[in-house]
Prior knowledge:
Elements: E1 9-10, E2 62-63, E3 77-82, H1 89-96, H2 99-102, E4 106-111, H3 115-124, E5 129-133, H4 135-142, E6 150-155, E7 161-166, H5 167-173, H6 195-203, E8 208-212, H7 218-229, E9 250-254, H8 260-265, E10 271-275, H9 278-285, E11 288-293, H10 294-297, E12 304-309, H11 310-315, H12 317-335, H13 342-349, H14 359-366, E13 369-373, E14 376-379, H15 396-408, H16 418-428, H17 431-443, H18 476-480, E15 492-494, E16 497-499
Helix pairs in contact: 1-12, 4-16, 12-17, 13-14, 15-16
Amino acid sequence: MAAFFVPFCFSGSPLGENSKGSEHMLDKRGFLKKSGSLMAVVLASSLLAACGGGGKGESDEKVAAAALPEGAVEKPSLKLGFIKLTDMAPLAIAKEKGFFAEEGLNVTLEPQANWKVLLDGVIGGQLDGAHMLAGQPLAATIGYGTKADLIAPLSLDLNGNAITLSNKVWKMIEPGLPKGADGKPTHPISASVLKPVVESFNKQGKPFKMGMVFPVSTHNYELRYWLAAGGLNPGYYAPGDVAGTIDADVQLSVTPPPQMPATLEAGTIEGYCVGEPWNQAAVQKKIGVPVITDEQIWHLNPEKVLGLRKDFADKYPQTTAALLRAVIKAQQWLDAEDGKNRAEAVKILSQPNYVGADAAVIAASMTGKFTFGPGDTRPAPEFNIFFREYAGYPFYSDAIWYLTQMRRWGQVADEKADQWYFDTAKAVYRPDLYMAAAKGLVDKGVIPAASLPETDGFKAPQSGFIDGKVFDGKKPNAYLAQFPIGLKGKAIVTATGVKSN
């Protein structure tokens, strides 16, 4: 019989007032005890709408851990997919440091050619789960592209991407950039500096082209956000249109991450947004210049998730919990003691069966710094976060931000009520499963109680965006209404452009 997870909500008070971040810590009364009855375990995830942030998003009830049945891991041998990016690190570390084995799991990690192949592998069952773009399980659930019931019970990391421009474009914009006392460009760099470049291309009858890794990738939305914040329209998607270039000032296209440097060098694109180490690879090859990191576009933005099929989690609840525990332990290892383990992580990731890039290239962004160009390496302690800042917790509000961007650019074709955003987020992002796994680690003293947030699944309104906008996950339509570029209200996209209706 398939298991069903029952969500319970508690208002619980924070643990000790002396603890850092105590306003986010989970009171132990918010955890459920294990139950031996499978029937007591899961109701459909739609019932999660009754917990925190439901209705008008005004509830302050807390998301509690799912109850799990007693028992051994049901499926000890697993195959997980990944793309060759440094933010797959929690999976590699869980394998290499024995965290999977500690949880009774024999895990094979298998690199995938691109994000579409990876997604199809999870949906088709060739993969039990994967290092996945945060937008992929959301898009599959709403039927954008491929329709499938996927869930994200864990967020793998925060930050980790950057935008790189070709040397040709860099030479066009660099002289006019504001400089600091050291003569280096002042960051963050606004996309507004590209306006004269785009105009120059247009006068020559050439479109200005940039690359991103997948239509529902964080990279697509971050690149679009940066361009729009600088006054450049990145284009819209219409129903049945996968190009997303309608009304575009800058044309975006898909390129798999490892192929980004070669595509840039060939002149097919003039810049790209990608995860590491493929921005640093452009620096090493001297073919491009990173101009902004995603942390400078949106402070502490969520990046990848662990994606699973919903029926997998329902059928194998103990396996799912064990998988999450192993990854959480790896995340903690990666952030331990101000990154003391990062040098070892770099060596592991440089192996050909993982990222397969030179260790020096990976280290250029993985060890608390980021290189924007020769002689321009800057401190970047928040470029890769895996455990701090509740990085592993799959917040509903993170899912809602991605859904707002899908709507902003036409991938969600029609206006949706706020409740649609809440319901969709809660069907896909599963903090109850994360809390069930993390609670077991807290009980054993493996991770601190302070690393678990006390939350209704929504972050407080977030600032830290390059355009100064504030995102409140409980008010998605009000958030969309702020943008001068992008769909809002009843606006739709047709082949001839945007209609406000």
